[in-house]
Every structure is written in C-alpha cells, then in structure tokens.
Design a protein that fits this description.
The protein has about 130 residues and is mainly β. The protein is about 0% helix and about 40% strand. The strands form two sheets. Strands 1-2-3-6-7 form a five-stranded antiparallel sheet, with no helix packed on it. It has a three-stranded antiparallel sheet with strand order 4-5-8, with no helix packed on it. β2 and β3 form a beta hairpin.
Length: about 130
C-alpha cells in the first residue's frame, strides 16, 4: 500500500467453473452419479487505497478469499452422506499502513473473514439388502 503514490481503486470479478464427477459403479445403495456437481460461481473483489500523507495509507477491501461447493442432486448414490454442500467466505478488511524506511512497512488489517457453511443430506435410512423383500 505504501508503494502507491496516488489513491487507487480496483474492482474485478473471477468466474469459477468447476467440474466434479462421482463414480457410482461401486455403490450398492442405488441411485446415480449425480452428474456434474460443480457449481458456477462469480467471485467479486473491491480494493481501495487512500493516501493520507507521504508515508501513511488507509485501505479497504471486500473479497471472497474462500469458497467452494457441490450439488449432486437428490438421487445421488451418496445422498445419505451429503448431496449438496457449500462454503463461502467474504472478508471486509480495512487496513492501515505506514512506511518505516526504504524497505520496511507496518500494516494492520482489522477484521477476519465471515464464513457461512451449508450441507444438505437425505434422511438417513438403511438400504435394503438383496435378500430382503
């Protein structure tokens, strides 16, 4: 931050296009492979730095530093463990920086990220054995 000579703002997005496939040929409880479980995600980012003097800067960022998930649908062979899950993080980070020397910089971030988590599974039922009617 202290290497910037003027106020700066950066806004951007990233597209995440995952592909997740499960091999259901070894499963005995019935169901299918769930198809592509990857969930399309757009991750926004915003970063700003304000010059407050020759050696002092204030910054603020909003970013998604962590995230992921899957959605195998309801008839997925592993549905009794989990068929849908997601974890998403968002960080609102104000920070201060001060240039101490030519190469030394002190920086203080203020807030940790907020991370909600979701998992869904089918109600747990015992699969029928082949000998049962």
């Amino acid at each position: 931050m202290t290497g910037l000579k003027t106020d700066q703002v950066l806004v951007g997005n990233q597209a995440l296009i995952p592909y997740q496939k499960f091999d259901s040929s070894v499963a005995e409880a019935g169901g299918d492979d769930g198809g592509n479980a990857g969930v399309l995600a757009v991750v926004p980012g915003f970063y700003a730095v304000k010059t407050l003097g020759d050696k002092f800067r204030a910054g603020f960022s909003v970013a998604g530093p962590i995230g992921g998930g899957f959605d195998f649908r309801d008839n997925f062979v592993g549905r009794y463990q989990a068929y849908q899950s997601s974890i998403n993080g968002i960080a609102f980070s104000p920070s201060l920086a001060y240039r101490i020397g030519d190469k030394a910089v002190g920086r203080v971030p203020v807030f940790p990220p907020y991370i909600p988590y979701l998992t869904r599974k089918s109600p747990l039922t015992r699969p029928r054995l082949a000998m049962e009617k």
